[in-house]
Amino acid sequence: MSNAMQFYISTLLIYLFIDIIGVLGLNLQFGVAGIINFAYIAFVGVGAYTAAVLSLGPDHPDNFQHYLFGANLPFPLPILAAGAASGILSLLVGLISLRRLRSDYQAMVMLVLSLIATLVATNATGLVNGPAGLATIPWPLYDQLGLSPVEYQWVYVGWAGLLAVFTFLFVQGITNSPLGRTLRAMRDNDRAAAALGKSITGLRLMIFVVGGVIAGICGAVFVEFIQAWSPGSWLYPETFVFFAAILVGGTANNWGAMVGALLVPVGFLEATRFLPQIFYQGFIEAMQWVCVGLLILLFLWFRPSGLFPERPGRFRPRAGALSRPSDAPRAQGALSK
Amino acid sequence: MSAESLPILSVRDVHRDFGGLRAVDGASFDTRSGRITGLIGPNGAGKSTLIGIIGGQIKPNGGTITFEGEEVTGLAPHTIARRGIIRTFQMSAEFARLTVLENLLVAAPSQRGESLVGAELGRLYWGSNEDALVDEARRVLDRFGMAPKENELAGNLSGGQKRLLEIMRGLMCRPKMLLLDEPFAGVNPTLAQEIETYLISLRDDGLSMIMVEHELAVVERLCDPVVVMAHGKVIAEGSMSDVTTLREVLDAYLVG
After folding, report:
1. CB of A31 closer than 8 Å to CB of A311
2. How far is CA A111 from CA A27, A120, A224, in A?
3. Within chain B, how many helices (H) and strands (E) appear?
């Protein structure tokens, strides 16, 4: 395989694994727990900025870029700190927005929060270098490993893949447990769940923070790979790419969410990149957003449960249940019929 | 005084305003242990609001509610549920994308796999607890004749079955008291007959209940005492035969 091809393939795989991490985090919040977090990309951005400033080294007046909290922490501390920063921010945001507001209002609060976050990062230029963003973020362990760039990319594929697998096992642990069942119940009817003794605020807050940590790690692994990050890379529509992936793959189904990550952010957006430029520069990119919107609409309309619908829990069959056909495991996705 | 007739829940001078409307206006009554207390009255009398206040969904503007000697006024719904008061809703409140069995399992209190750490420790940690709950839930399903529906998504059940599901789900909470808000609304007569039989057997097992119901014949068969509300006030309290002879009650129902 040529070097260029290796670069391309390894880059795509890294993007895939990073998108999988991101989509799994949002699926936990939205698909499983029913929290409509339209600010998800902001938490990805916070993780990315945290990891960036903690690997760039302390700021210096002679630098071409300026930022707060600069440090030169060894790998993987910037990534862990990114998860922590995003988690703490989630806790603060959640404490304010998740306590009383109804979920449709929560969604609006999140959307506004996403806009505010972009404005702050753009206009508070001393914070994370304003609209120019941060660049020259070093590849973690690149100097120590002494590999060629293409070899290094393959190492990064392995590292991102490992994190994706870990994230998957972690969210599966929640989704397939009694906790996951309680979260799905809360999603379907929060009043009824509260009336059965479930602390809705506590559960929402917990999942909001857990999802926030995953978002932060997703942003960190991404920024340490592409080595640059600016407010323009995390505008609010990016959240809808994640939502599209979940709706296409299947809400509350982590396998489906991974397929969604492969099909939407990686497959769909990558495929359109090869279309010839028509009309004017940027037309194809603009159409990508139109298509993401259409994709969401089409799936909500025709296949609301996604390609891989949510699976009900499986239980030990009743003694002698095999003779009773009504107790046999039934087909999935009954909501779509 | 026998243990059976001790007051389990006391409502004292409870008020609730909605804007200018006084939905509950100084309501007071006691419910007895092991009885079904009927809460009747014309539309807009404040019955459902009162149920909401007892269940914690609605905060009262004044008054106290005492359950088993402890004040529970204004506590969060989940705290009240954990004290043993479980309510059903007038509108169906099933977890639509969960199966019937899962709906019941959700309701079980203090499950090992319901905390974040517990969930991540995996089935080895919470599996035996889960198996015991599945057995318990299946016993409830058997008792209510819903075993054939155990793997059905709750959203696909009929209106009457959803009512039954809510009662079964409530039982999984091991409640001390059930608040039933019109448990027979929209239920076909055959199933209504069944639900009535189940409620009687639950009462005979010693479960206390408060039931809001419009069908007076059902109330007469199940409930003792009966509390009559009109315009947010309790206007009569006693056995069905006692309250129906009172002039105020007749006026409230006829003039309402």
Report:
1. no
2. 17, 14, 26
3. 10, 10
Q: Which amino acid is at A212?
A: G
Q: Where are the domains of chain A?
A: 3-310
ipTM for the assembly: 0.91
Give the other-Cβ count within 10 Å of A322's Cβ.
10
The encoded tokens of residue B218 equal: 């059902």
> Which of B87, B114, B134 has the CB atom closest to A182's CB atom?
B114
> What pLDDT was estimated at residue A325?
45
Rounded Cα–Cα distance for residues B161 and B10 (Å): 31
> Would you call A123 an interface residue with chain B, using a CB distance cutoff of 8 Å?
no
Instruction: Examine the pLDDT at B253 and tell me if it is beyond 80.
Output: no
Q: Which residue of B has its CA nearest to A305?
A: B97
The CATH architecture assigned to A3-310 reads: Orthogonal Bundle (1.10)
Residues 6+ apart with CB under 8 A from B4: B32, B33, B34, B35
DSSP per-residue letters across B203-235? HHTT-EEEEE-S-HHHHHHH-SSEEEEETTEEE
A177 and B CB contact within 8 Å: yes
Q: Say whether A102 sits in a helix, a strand or coil.
A: coil
Three-state DSSP class for residue A60: coil
Q: Which residues contact A154 (CB under 8 A, 6 or more apart)?
A: A6, A10
- Domains of chain B, with CATH numbers? 3-94+175-255 (3.40.50.300), 98-156 (no CATH)
Residues of chain A by 3-state class (helix, strand, coil), percent to 5 = 70, 0, 30
User: Measured between alpha carbons, how far is B249 from A230 in angstroms, rounded to an integer?
Assistant: 72
Render each residue's pLDDT in chain A as its tens digit; 337 residues: 788 888 899 999 999 999 999 999 999 999 999 999 999 999 999 999 999 888 887 777 777 777 778 778 788 899 999 999 999 999 999 998 888 767 788 888 899 998 898 888 888 777 878 787 787 888 888 888 888 888 889 999 999 999 999 999 999 999 999 999 999 999 999 999 999 999 999 999 999 999 999 999 999 999 999 888 888 878 888 899 999 999 999 999 999 999 999 988 888 777 777 777 777 777 777 778 888 888 899 999 999 889 999 988 888 888 755 444 444 444 444 343 3
In chain B, % helix, strand, coil (3-state, to 5) comes to 45, 25, 30
Distance from CA of A320 to the nearest CA of B (A): 13
How many CB pairs (< 8 A) connect A and B? 138
